[in-house]
Design brief:
Radius of gyration: 17 Å
Number of helices: 3
Largest sheet: none
Helix content: over 70%
Strand content: under 5%
Order of helices and strands: HHH
Number of strands: 0
């Protein structure tokens, strides 16, 4: 009960905060990580989604840097 009240109280405040504008790779990574975490065991889907989001964003940023460097060499 307290958890629901706390969530209901904090939700509007958290939604008012500005989020990152470019979350490239995060959604795809979170989906893959969530599915992987689901198959690992109970309660691991959220952790898998969080880690998948971080890894997906890192890989997208690395690919963007690599593409930018390749365009600069031409």
């Amino acid at each position: 009960m307290i958890r629901r009240l706390l969530t209901a109280a904090l939700f509007p405040a958290l939604m008012a905060l500005p989020g990152p504008a470019a979350a490239a790779g995060c959604l795809k990574g979170a989906a893959v990580g969530g599915v992987g975490g689901h198959f690992v065991g109970r309660g691991h889907a959220l952790a898998g989604a969080a880690i998948g989001c971080a890894v997906g964003h890192h890989r997208a940023a690395a690919a963007a840097r690599r593409d930018g460097a390749a365009r600069g060499r031409r």
